[in-house]
Known about the structure:
Blueprint: H1 3-19, H2 32-42, E1 52-67, E2 82-96, E3 100-113, E4 121-133, E5 137-151, E6 159-174, E7 179-192, H3 195-201, E8 203-214
Antiparallel strand pairs: 1-2, 2-3, 3-4, 4-5, 5-6, 6-7, 7-8
Amino acid sequence: MGKLGMGAVTAAAVAVFALLPSREAAAQDFGQAWIDRITHELEQERGPLAPKPLDVTGTAGVNYAYDNNIFLADTGPGKKKDSIVIPFLQVDLNYAEPRFDIEASFLGNYKRYFKETNVSDDEERFFFRARQTSARWNFEISEIFLNVSDPAGLLFLNRVSRIVSTTVPKIAFDIGRQWALEVAGNIMVVRYQDPAFSAAQENNNFTVDLNAIYRTP
Length: 217
């Protein structure tokens, strides 16, 4: 693409970005607002659920960012600056019945670097949660799937793609009016596409916790 064509793309991206809501951060942490919202959704209290019909919404746009250190290097030749155009698409789904609800969200984007064309990458983020409730118990399972790209650090002047899958099952059971038991788990799987990172940093891990809860009258 010539200088005139690239300049036109830059101007168009800046114009579109000016019209978009400022809910997305800069290139390094694009999608942070999405993660913050999903984290808040995971912390919601258990039922009762409010019935609502199936609702599907979509958002598409283009984000422009200028980054003066795309590899997060300290100093020297590794510290490079670039302009980045990020087209993105987000789709959300919600549905609820009195004792069951389901929620899903997808955010995908592509990062186009103007100077460092060899590090352009795509990212996908997916969230899913289903809950089933009754008068005495509540069960839910959620999944957060991320395919994201991060700076590799000081040793490699590139960006590394990684896949992170986090599965969170939860179950709560009321023993009486004031006592309840809750069991939750967290299963995480991390995979890297670059062999230089996969051998040392890939991992599978899980945690399990049990809570006894007393509610005051």
